Amino acid sequence: MARVAPIYDGIGRAYARHRRPDPRIAAQIERALGDVSTLVDVGAGTGSYEPADKSVVAVEPSVVMASQRDAGAAPVVRAVAESLPFPDASFDAALAVFTIHHWSDVVGGLREMARVARVVAVLTFDPVAHSDFWLFRDYVPEANALASNLVLPPEAVAEVIGAQRVEPVMIPSDCVDGFNWAFWRRPEEYLAPEVRACMSGLALLPDDLVAKRMDRLRADIAGGTWHARHGHLLHQDVIDGGLRLVVRQ
Ligand SMILES: C[S@@+](CC[C@H](N)C(=O)[O-])C[C@H]1O[C@@H](n2cnc3c(N)ncnc32)[C@H](O)[C@@H]1O
Predict the structure, then answer these.
(1) Residues with CB under 6 A from ligand 1
(2) Does residue 182 sit in helix, strand or coil?
(3) Apex CA 186: angle with CA 50 and CA 206, to 5°?
């Protein structure tokens, strides 16, 4: 735990402000979970996608993240996915959202989820589709190099947990959860350091490097280059940015 908590203890300070649950993504997760009563949310952070109508236990190693949970949020156990402190089949369902790319042993953590629950839902991303993003391609290719080392493809996640399906999760143009693809149609949002600080793909890179690239993005927006290259996106309401929901029911 000592190895993982410091990352989010460092970059997670403004998380609750910019990483709020998007209702459309939340609805898809809740449909996938189905009619379960008890749930463990692994890598729970501030508890964004925890269903209000279920009995939830959150697992979170970072004190900074856990401290941003609402007063009425589910109780937190300070632990890591790789070693869940629960007996076999303790919960109806286990959920992991935007977290497996941070785990030191992804396969071990996924096996732990499958051990403690019958239904397992993992929101992750397809590294190939995810990397095909104008922000990474044109401005911060270093973010892709970082992600490709960390991500287990959704099909491999499905194999480990014995999932029946992998669902694409579309990203709306007005997505309210500020993860890295969220502002695919609102490029000016990436110019705010506090917004970027909540996207691990950018926050883990050197500040001065990202700041220089964002200066270029600022100039491209002001000068019309961004619109000339990517203006077609302004006619789209949703996009496939590689988000995938892997579900075992
Ligand atoms: C991007 S946040 C996602 C939080 C939340 N699930 C959400 O959707 O907003 C990733 C979280 O994973 C946690 N984390 C990192 N390594 C972990 C591990 N090995 N086991 C469990 N959680 C971990 C981090 O501390 C952080 O809170």
Answers:
(1) 4, 8, 19, 42-46, 48-49, 59-62, 65, 80-82, 97-99, 102-104
(2) coil
(3) 80
Q: Which of 121, 161, 146, 135 is nearest to 39 (CA)?
A: 121
Residue type, 110: L
Q: How far is the CA of 105 from the centre of ligand 1 (A)?
A: 13
The number of domains in the chain is 1
Domain that holds residue 157: 5-248
Query: pLDDT: is 99 or 145 the higher one?
Result: 99
In ligand 1, the atom with minimum distance to the C-alpha of 123 is 8
Q: Mean pLDDT across the stretch 106-119? A: 98
Q: Compute the distance from residue 136 Cα to the ligand 1 centre, in Å.
A: 22
pLDDT tens, position by position, 125-144: 999 999 999 999 999 999 88
User: What is the rounded CA–CA span in Å between residue 193 and residue 245?
Assistant: 29
Closest residue CA from atom 4 of ligand 1 = 45
Q: Which residue has the tokens 């502002």?
A: 183
- Helix (H) / strand (E) element for 56: namely strand 55-59
- Tell me the per-residue pLDDT of 147-199, one tens digit each, with 9 for 90 and over: 666 679 999 999 999 999 999 999 999 999 999 999 999 999 999 999 998 89
Please give the pLDDT value at position 6: 61
How far apart are the C-alpha atoms of 150 and 163, rounded to whole Å? Answer: 21
Indicate the pTM of the whole model. Answer: 0.94
Q: Which residues contact 111 (CB under 8 A, 6 or more apart)?
A: 160, 161
As a whole number of angstroms, the distance between CA 125 and CA 150 comes to 11
The CATH number of whichever domain residue 193 belongs to comes to 3.40.50.150
Residue from 48, 102, 180 to probe ligand 1 pocket by mutation (most atoms less than 8 Å from CB): 102
